[in-house]
Design goal:
single chain, 404 residues, eight-stranded mixed β-sheet, binds adenosine monophosphate
Length: 404
């Protein structure tokens, strides 16, 4: 059985999925797994297509001190115990910088170019690159593909791509990139199947998970995003504040004596729903809480989604559909109903019963704008890109792309 391995490596965990390649390039998910607690309490967990547990085992710290070791242990487990030897590996890489507008087949030159973007995403890019380097060293013949969170947004116009700062900073990479691109690309493709007429028009997609952003799609292409230079901007998230006056950062430095790394930790870990509520970063806990600050955090989340919708509708010069996706967007009927209320001025009206059922189409017949719930699947997107680049590279005219 031919398989594709998809890898999503973070600082303390490596998530992986295995897809089998079926007839005519169809992909079927076979295994979902992750190595958590890297360098602290390593644990490998994996389940099969039906949710059946395939592994749940702890390792000593010395066995899994870092991401490459985690990749090695998970790879050995797949190979030795499940007899899985993938024909290619697809990686989620957060930053493709200004260069990459689509996934790319990896070689040493690509790795060197992606290393240049470490300074643009210091918390993610090094961890994304670690398993790539280790597979390149240990299995040099195994094709690897990098799929970027930024690539889908490279269709933005120059005005959407700039900040009002001196041009030399833009030239060195200080731009409004946008993230969650693999999720938006999957939604754009899926809309084309479930509502082809809508997919060609003006659509706002709200990716509401522990990271949250929104994207304006026109004819299936991204024209604007709430995220910018980093994944800190835009909507409030589990632990990140979203849009913030840069003066707040200056205040933290000058009045609170915080260093750059203190500010970084603060902005990535202590803000957002967690910081505002003082209760939790998890929407389920906030919805269950009686604390007034938990209510304020939810109110703020919904309010900012409403504000950002206005901004994106202005970028699109109108709106033809709204889509919810990711953990909160797919599962919280309450948040969807409240966001829809915020969009009432646009003529949005949600059907309470369809919304409670998490139906695909949750708007009422008389809603001027249809509202959809579409579960995202970034890993399938990565597997599809990996397979198609693999097939392309084996054709007589390989398209080995780098777009400037
Ligand atoms: P994601 O990052 O897309 O996996 O989304 C994770 C977030 O989705 C969690 O932090 C929860 O806050 C949220 N979530 C998942 N299930 C539900 C639910 N049933 N109701 C509300 N929020 C949920």
């Amino acid at each position: 059985m031919d398989t594709i391995l998809v890898v999503n490596a973070g600082s303390s965990s490596v998530k992986f999925q295995v897809f089998s390649v079926e007839g005519e390039g169809t992909l079927r998910r076979q295994i979902k797994g992750q190595m958590d607690g890297i360098g602290s309490r390593p644990r490998l967990r994996a389940s099969g297509a039906g949710g059946d547990s395939l592994a749940d085992r702890a390792y000593p710290i010395e066995a899994v001190p870092d991401v490459p070791a985690a990749m090695r242990v998970a790879g050995d487990w797949l190979r030795d115990e499940l007899r899985i030897q993938p024909i290619a590996v697809g990686h989620r890489v957060v930053h493709g910088g200004p260069d990459y507008a689509r996934p790319v087949l990896i070689d040493h030159g690509v790795v060197a170019r992606l290393e240049r973007f470490v300074s643009l995403a210091p918390l993610h890019q090094p961890h994304n690159l670690a398993p790539i380097r280790s597979i390149l060293a240990n299995f040099p013949a195994l094709p690897q593909v990098a799929c970027f969170d930024t690539a889908f947004h490279r269709t933005h116009s120059a005005v959407a791509d700039h900040y009002a700062i001196p041009h030399h900073l833009h030239a060195e990479g200080v731009r409004r990139y946008g993230f969650h691109g693999l999720s938006y690309e999957y939604i754009a493709k899926t809309l084309l199947q479930i509502a082809p007429e809508i997919a060609k028009r003006r659509v706002i997609v709200a990716h509401l998970g522990s990271g949250a952003s929104m994207c304006a799609l026109r004819d299936g292409q991204s024209i604007e995003s709430t995220m910018g230079f980093t994944a800190l901007d835009g909507l409030p998230m589990g632990t990140r504040p979203g849009q913030l006056d840069p003066g707040v950062v200056l205040y933290l430095i000058s009045e609170k004596g915080m260093s750059a790394s203190n500010v970084q930790n603060f902005l990535y870990r202590d803000c957002g729903l967690r910081g505002l509520s003082g209760v939790s970063n998890d929407m389920r806990e906030l919805e269950a809480s009686q604390e007034s600050k938990a209510k304020l955090a939810i109110d703020y989340f919904v309010y900012r989604i409403g504000l950002s919708s206005g901004m994106l509708a202005a970028a699109l010069q109108g709106l033809d559909a709204f889509v919810f996706t990711a953990g909160i967007g797919e599962n919280s009927a309450n948040i969807r109903a409240r966001v829809a209320e915020q969009l009432g001025w646009l003529g949005v009206a949600v059907d309470a019963a369809e919304n409670a059922r998490h139906s695909r189409l949750i708007s009422r017949l008389n809603s001027t704008i249809p509202v959809y719930v579409v579960p995202t699947d970034e890993e399938l997107m990565i597997a599809q890109h990996t397979l198609s680049l693999l097939m392309n590279s084996q054709s007589p005219n390989p398209r080995h792309e780098r777009v400037s």
